[in-house]
Design goal:
By secondary structure, the chain is of the alpha+beta class. The protein has one domain (about 5-49). The protein has one helix at about 30-49; strands spanning about 5-10, 15-20. A two-stranded antiparallel ribbon has the order 1-2. The radius of gyration is 12 Å and the shape is flat. The relative contact order is 0.21.
Length: about 50
């Protein structure tokens, strides 16, 4: 891992589907909102598979 924090998204078979590094905190405004929305989209997509 090269950055902290690192989130590794796995599919139901345990395969790595996406690696996200870093964090845009609430103080970054729209960047935080975009990060949360993207995280939720990825989780929703994996749950539907």
């Amino acid at each position: 891992m090269l950055a902290f924090p690192t989130t590794i998204f796995l599919d139901k078979k345990g395969n790595v589907r996406k690696i996200h590094t870093g964090f845009a905190g609430p103080g970054t405004g729209k960047y935080y909102e975009e990060e949360i929305a993207g995280f939720n989209r990825e989780v929703d997509k994996l749950l539907k598979e």
